[in-house]
Amino acid sequence: MDPEAGIDDYKAYKRNFKGGIYKPYKMLVDQFTEIGIVVIDPEQQLFNPFILVFDIESLLQRLHSPEDEEEGESLRNTMFTHRHKPVSVSVCSNVPGFRCCDLVNFAGTSRFIEVSVEFMVAASEEAERLCHEKAHSLYQTLENITSDALVNQKQWMVNKVARLRKQLDRYYKQLRCLTYNGSSYDLVALVREGLCYYLKKHDSTPMAVKLGNRYILISTEKLRFLDVIQFCGGKTSLRNFLRTWGDSTLHGEKLFFPYSSLTNTEDLFREELPAYDEFYSDLCGLNVLEEEWIKFERLLTVGLTENEALAELKLHERPRTGREHYEILWRIWEENNCEYLYQFLLIYNKSDVEPLMHAVINMMKHWMNEEQIDPFCKATLSGLAFPLLMRNLAKAGLDKDTNFFCLLDRECYDLISDSIHGGISHSFNRLEFRGYSKIKEHRYGPDAKTMKSVYAFDANGLYSGCIGEFDQCLGYYAHRKRETNFRIRTVNGKNKLALAWLMWLSKVVLQQYVRTMLCLGGERVCVVNGRRLFADGFVMDPGETQGTVYLFHECEIHSCPTCLGEEKFENDLHPLKKISHRQNYQETKDYEQLYYKNKDVKEVRVMWSHQFKQMIREDPTVRGFVESIMLGPPEVEREVTEQRVVELIRAKKLFGFAEVDIRVPETLYDYFAEWPPLFAKQKLGAEDLDPRQKAFAEKHGLLKTPNLNLVSVMEAKKTVIHTDLLIWYLEHGLEVTRVHSLTQWRCGNAFGGWLNKIVVGRREAAITGDVLKDLTNKLLANSSYGYALLNLAKRPKVKFVEDKKLDKLMKSRYFRKMQQAGPSVA
Q: Is the model's pLDDT at 23 over the cut of 60?
C-alpha cells in the first residue's frame, strides 16, 4: 500500500463507520456473567485445557557451491546459502490417547508432515469431545436460558445465547498446536514443505497472520498454530522459560545436536555420535557445546566475580565446559543403546517437547487462575494487553454504559490516525569521543567545551506511565471549528440532548435496545425488517411486527411555539429556511404524520428539547443520569475567538487535540538547534542532506529519489497536537499562529489501577529474580499503549490458494508477492 496514498486510495481494506459505541473484546467468562451464569472455577468448568506441543529438527541444505557463493557475494548484498530441510518432528500433547508422536523423514519427502497433521487433527477431535463432556453443565444452563427466553418472548436473549454457544463451540473445536520460537523457523519450514496443503486436505483452508517472514498464527477449523515465545515478553531462551514455568524434575540435561554435520538424510544412519569438533555451528561461529562456558569466561576476564558472572548469565551454578557436555551426550547415547544417529535425534527432540508441554500447562493455569483468561485465545501477548486493559476498567466500575470509548466518525478518525507519525530517535545516531568531541561547537565555536563523558539514558516504564499517570479522553467528543467561531453545537456530529434522551429511554425507561440514526459512527438510518427508516429512534417489542418511532425536535430548528412565543411564532421568519416559523412548524408536524404510512410503525412519540431540559432541571434522577454518561466535554464557553482558544488551552480548560499552525520564534533557534521540537513528514532527497550525509547516501545508493520521511522542524502547518503537549510548547516560547480546529473531550484518569497492577507485578518479579515474568509485565504495559496505535490497514493479507485461483489474485493491484507453499497451494 502506497504510504503517500490519499484516503480515497485505501481500498485494500474496508473501513466501516456503521455507528454505535465501541464495545471492547470480552472474555468468555465475562460473556457468561452478562447472561447471569457465574462460572465459579473457570479452569475446571469452562476453559479448554488441551494443548499439543511440537518441535521439528532440520538439516541445513546448501543451495549453492562455495564457488557460486563467492561469485554471488560480489554481485549482490544478500544471498541465501542454506535452507532448512525438516528431517524429524516430535509431537507431545496432554490429550488422552495422543500423548506422543515421533517421526523421522528418511525418504526426504513431505509425507511425514502429512502423518503429523493427521495425528493433530485426530487429537483435536478427541479434545473437542472431552471439552463438551467437561462443559456439559454449562451447555445445559444455556439450553435452560434459551427456553425461558422463548417463553418470555425475549428474542434478543435467544440470539445472544446462540452467539455465545457458537463461540464456545468454535473455541472447543480448535486444538492449540504450540512451538517454541517456531514462528521464524519451524512453521516457515513446514509451510514450505506443504503444511498448508495437508491442512486443507485433512482439515480446512488455513488462515495466517504473518509479520515479516514470521508466521505469528496459522489457523484452521480444528487447529491453531502458535509460537509460545510470543507470550514471553521478549526473546528468551527455552531454558529460561522452563526455569520460570517448568517442573524442575522434568528438565533433565541440556542436550545438543550437531546440525552442521548433517548434509543429507543418509547421515542419520551414522552408527556413532559425531566427533566433538562436528558440533561447530556456522551460524553461531563457535562450538555449541562451549557457548555458555565461553560467555562465562569472558565475564570473568573483564573483572566480574564468579557469582556476578552467574547472575549476569542468569545461572545458578557454574556452566559446564564443552568436554563435559560431550561426555554427557556419550553417556546418553550408551544408556539408550543408540545404534544410529536418528535414534539420538528422537531423544533430543523429546528432551525439549515434554518439559515444554508441562511448562506451557503451568503457564496456562497461571493465566486462568490469576486473570480468568486463556492466553492462547489471542495470537500474541500484545493482543491480550488491550482486553486486559478493558477488563481493568470493568473491575474498577468505569465501564458502565460503555461511556469511555466510542467509535469515531470518519472526520475525527482521519484527523487523529493521519496525525500519528511516531517520533525521531536522536540517540545513538552520532559518533562522539570522550576527550575529543566538542559540546555544541556550532554554537560556541572555539570556546566549546570538550566532552569528558558520554551517558545513555533509557526511560523506565515510559509507556505504562503514559497510560496510568496522564489523563485520557473520556466520553464523546465535540468538534470546534474555526469557520463556526469554535462553537460547540453537536457531539460527534449529533445533537447532544437527543443522544442523552435516547440513552435515557434505552437504559432507564424502556430497558431495551433502541435503534437510532443518531448513533455515534455516522449512520443516518435505522434498519427495520430489512428496510431503511429515517428516525431518531425506533423500538420494536419482541414478537411484534410494528414498533414505535421516537423523534427528538430541537426547538430552534423546528420552530417550537412554546419557546418562541405567539408574536415571534406568527410574524418572524426562520433564520435558516427563510420561511415563517408557523410554516416550518407545520412541515414538522406533517413529517411526523408520514411515519404512520409506514407499515412498520405503530406509534410516534415526540420529545422537544425544552421538555427534556425541564426534566433534567426538575428530576434529580434524570439529571444524575445525564451527568454520569458524560455526553461530550464541558462547555467552557459556547463561542470563542481564536486567541481565546489558545488561552483556554494554556489554562487547561480545553482538553483534546488541536489542529494548529505552530512555529519556533527566530529568537529561540539557537536554543532548539540541537533538537527542533516539532515533527512533520516531508519529502527528502540527497540534495537536502549535509555534505557528510550526502556522501554516505551516494556511497550506499540511498535516496536516489525523494522519499517521505519524518523530520524535526522549526515550523509546522496544520499539525494535530495533544493539548498537554501544546501547553508544553507554549510554556517554552513557541507561537501558535493559527488554530484550525479543536477536537475536545472530557479528561480523566481511567487506567491508574492498570498501572499499579503492572508495577506491583514487576516489583515482585524483581524481588524473586524472575526475569521472564518481569519482561511479560513490561510487554503487557507497553502493548496496552502501543497496540491501539497499530495501523492494521497496512498489514498484508496472507491467503493460501490453489494454483487455479492464483492468476486472478496476481492481477489485483494490491498483489505484492507469492511463494510456493506446497504441491498445489501458493
A: no
Q: What is the DSSP string of 616-679?
A: HHH-HHHHHHHHHHT-S---S-SS--HHHHHHHHHTT-S-EEEEEEEE--GGGTTTTSSS-SEE
Lowest mean pLDDT among 12-16, 198-202, 232-236, 493-497: 12-16
Which positions ≥6 away from 215 have C-beta within 8 Å? 183, 187, 188, 191, 208, 209, 225, 227
How far CA 329 is from CA of 215, 332, 375, in Å, comes to 33, 5, 36
Helix, strand, or coil (residue 485): coil
> How many C-beta atoms lie closer than 10 Å to residue 142's C-beta?
19
Helix (H) or strand (E) holding 708: strand 707-713
Sign (positive or negative) of CA dihedral 46, 382, 312, 352: positive
Residues 6+ apart with CB under 8 A from 153: 542, 543
Instruction: List, for residues 554-592, the tens digit of each pLDDT value.
Output: 898 899 999 998 888 988 888 888 889 999 999 999 888
Among residues 512, 612, 620, 508, the alpha carbon closest in space to that of 552 is found at 612
More confident residue, 88 or 493: 88
What distance in Å separates the CA atoms of residue 69 and residue 55, rounded to the nearest whole number?
31
pLDDT of residue 343: 87
Among 480, 527, 790, 798, smallest CA distance to 649 is for 480
User: What residue type is assigned to position 569 of the chain?
Assistant: F
Give the separation between CA 392 and CA 761, rounded to whole angstroms: 15
Query: Which of these ranges, 403-407, 413-417, 529-533, has the smallest mean pLDDT?
Result: 403-407
Q: Which residues contact 180 (CB under 8 A, 6 or more apart)?
A: 55, 227, 228, 229, 238, 241, 352, 356
Name the pairing type of β-strands 175-179 and 51-62. parallel
Question: Can you tell me whether residue 19 is helix, strand or coil?
Answer: coil
Angle between helices 752-768 and 771-786 (to 10 degrees): 160
Tell whether the model's pLDDT for residue 414 goes beyond 80.
Answer: no
Contact 586, 593 (CB under 8 A): no
The rounded Cα 148 to chain-centroid distance in angstroms is 38
Whole-model pTM over 0.70? yes
Q: Sign of torsion, CA 150 152 156 161? A: negative
Pairing of strands 82-93, 51-62: antiparallel
Residue 714, CA distances (Å) to 450, 570, 662, 670 in order: 28, 59, 9, 11
Run of H or E including 590: helix 581-594
What would you report as the CA-atom Rg of the chain, rounded to the nearest whole angstrom? 33
In whole angstroms, give the CA distance from residue 556 to residue 609. 9
Tell me the one-letter amino acid at 403: N
Q: What is the DSSP letter of 509?
A: I
C-alpha cell at 548: 414505535
H/E stretch holding 516 reads strand 515-516
* Contact by Cβ (8 Å): 89, 54: yes
pLDDT digits (tens, 9 = 90+) for 99-158: 888 777 766 667 888 889 999 999 999 999 999 999 998 899 999 888 888 887 677 788
Amino acid identity of residue 357, one-letter, is M
C-alpha cell read off for 802: 490453489
Whole-number Cα distances in Å, 58 to 103, 291, 549: 13, 21, 67
Alpha carbons within 13 angstroms on the beta-carbon side of residue 438 total: 10
**Alpha carbon distance 44, 524 (integer Å):** 46
